[in-house]
Amino acid sequence: MPLLPAASPLPLSLAAAASRRGRAVACAARGAASSSFDAARFEAERLRLDAEARAGMASAAAGADAEADPKAWKWAIRRRVWDALEAEGVARDPRPVHHRIPNFDGAAAAADSLGRLDVFQDAQCVKVNPDSPQKQVRFLTLSGDKMLLTPQPRLRTGFFSVLESHMIPTGCIPEACTSVGAAKYGRPIGLDEKVKVNLIVIGSVAVDPSTGTRLGKGEGFAELEYGMLRYMGSISDSTMIVTTVHDKQLVNDIPVEKLLIHDVPVDIICTPTQVIFTNTTIPKPQGIYWEKLSPEKLGQIRILQELKRRIENETGTTLPCGPSEKLPPTAQRRRRKRRR
């Protein structure tokens, strides 16, 4: 199974260095050809939103009261897993892994185990989350001449990007596996795109192999992405959902009875050491559950606003809205500035 190229700790030979410089020039030339895309600006905005979101999650986790907050149990499990990955030396950059889909030692091995499965080999289009531990999955998808469907980070800057190997210059597939590369080389799609997704790969903080229950980092984007793909007709109940995690992320205390209707279960778990078929019986979400979506979250995601308007226009009804949630202080400040 091909591996995503990694930087060598040894000095490069002149030939290898020249080859690498050639690939960099080719990728740069392709990027320069798209004058409308500013990679530096995109990455700066992505990092800003990432820092803002993690600050908000940290605030929410710190303020979770075990008795008053119905999500407190989720934060307790997440915190335990994040702490264990850091304490036991298996966490990898970006660090710290807290309030992220954590990167881990052996992420490439877990991805390669997934790549050997029939469900991956037979898939023509694979939807993969944009997080660091799934970078090798994105690489295997593109290098295997499959269509890659990946969301723009946090859905703030867009919707999904479609990438195929023929769209990417020779030697640039590793770059295309990053968020900036996906935006640079990918083709943005909208809600009307006719695409059939054969497999979903999802990131997790914790997952229970006995039930297929999972916890993400706490923002709910995996559930929103899944719901929108259901609306588009791109997936169904039979579309398999796989996660790649470290063995330390396997837990046995996610209570099925406390899950919400929009929580997404997994069918297969791939770790660096094993492949687990969960045989989950948990129903998969059927779409977006608007009564669970706060007005603040809706206000952050343009594609969701478009979908809501479309459904309301088609049905002639007003969709429900979920309870309000507290915005991170940084987001509140930005909103106040816009009003001035």
Could you explain how this protein is built, in words?
The strands form three sheets. The protein has an eight-stranded mixed β-sheet with strand order 6-5-4-3-7-10-11-12. The longest helix has 24 residues, at 39-62. Helix content is 40%, strand content 11%. It has helices at 14-33, 39-62, 72-87, 107-115, 118-121, 135-143, 173-176, 179-185, 221-232, 295-300, 302-315, 329-339; strands at 91-92, 103-104, 125-128, 147-151, 160-163, 187-189, 199-202, 206-207, 214-215, 240-244, 268-270, 275-277. Residues 5-26 and 328-340 have low confidence and may be disordered. With 340 residues, it is an alpha/beta fold. Strand 11 (268-270) and strand 12 form a beta hairpin.
Low-pLDDT residue spans: 5-26, 328-340
Mean pLDDT: 84
Cα Rg: 20 Å
> Termini distance?
55 Å
Main sheet summary: 8 strands, mixed
What pattern of helices and strands is seen along the backbone? HHHEEHHEHEEHHEEEEHEEEHHH
Shape: globular
Structural class: alpha/beta
Helix content: 40-55%
Estimate the strand proportion. Answer: 5-15%
Lateral arrangement of strands in the main beta sheet: 6-5-4-3-7-10-11-12
Q: Would you report the number of β strands?
A: 12
In DSSP terms, counting alpha (H) and pi (I) runs of 4 or more, how many helices? 12
